[in-house]
Amino acid sequence: MLRGFYTAASGMIAQQRQQEALSNNITNAQTPGYKADQPAMRAFPEMLMQQMGNKQVPTEEGLNLSEQKPIGSMHTGVYTQETIPDQSQGDLRNTGTSTDLALVNGELPDDTGGVFFTVQNAEGEERYTRNGSFTVDNDGFLATSQGYRVLDEAGNPVQTDNKDFTVDGAGNLQTDDETTPLGIAYTDDVAAMVKEGNDVFAGDTEAAPAGAGYTVKQGSLEQSNTDPAQSMTQMMEGYRLFETNQRVLKAYDQSMGKAVSEIARLR
To answer: What residue stretches are annotated with the Flagellar basal-body/hook protein C-terminal domain (predicted)?
Structure first.
C-alpha cells in the first residue's frame, strides 16, 4: 500500500515541476531570444517483483523450503529528470531600432550546433545569449537590458562612443572611423548549454568558424520560440494528470486510515 502511495505522490511532484516550466515559458512568450524549456520525465529504475513462500518437501521430517516465484517488473514512479531548452530558431520581428540585433542560423557545420552573442555578466564572466535587444549605456558601451556588456571577438566590451553605427550580416559593427567585429560564439552541441537567469547561457564555446553560415540582422529581434497555445494545452493535460494522482493518493490515504482505525482496533 505504501508503495502505491509514494508512486502517486511522485507523479504529483513531476507534474508540478512540469507546470512550473510551462508557466515560465508562457511568461516569457514575448521575451526576445527566449528558448522554451522542455521537461524530460523518466521512470524510476525498474523493480523485479517476486512472490515469497514456502514449499513443503515430502520427507519424513516434513521439511519446508523457501521459494520465490517471479511476478514481473514494476516501476516505482516518475520524476522530472531535467529541463532541456529548445534551441530552435524563433521568428524574426522587424523593430527598426539600430541597437536591436538578431542572429539567424544558417548552414552550421554541425546539425546540433548554434551561435550566440557573447556578453560579460556582473562577475566579469563570459556568457552567451540569443536576446539581441541591446542598448547603449551611459559610458557608450553596447549592453543588454540587464546591463551586461556585449563583447567583441577579442573579448573586450564593444565601445560605440555614443555614435551612430551599423552592423553588417557578418556581425561587424561600423562607426564613422572604426570597425569592431562582434564576438559571435559557436558551440557544436547546443543541448550542452546551461540556461542561467537574465536570458544567458553558460557552456563551452569557440569563435564562430568561417563556415558557420549565420547572419546578423540589424533592426530586428529574434522572438521567443514558445508556442503559447501548445503550452496551455500541455498545462491542462498536466493539471488533469495531477488531479488523477491526487484522487489515487486520497484513496490510499482513506485505506490507510481504515487500516489504522478499524482493522487494527482491539475488540
So the answer is: 217-260
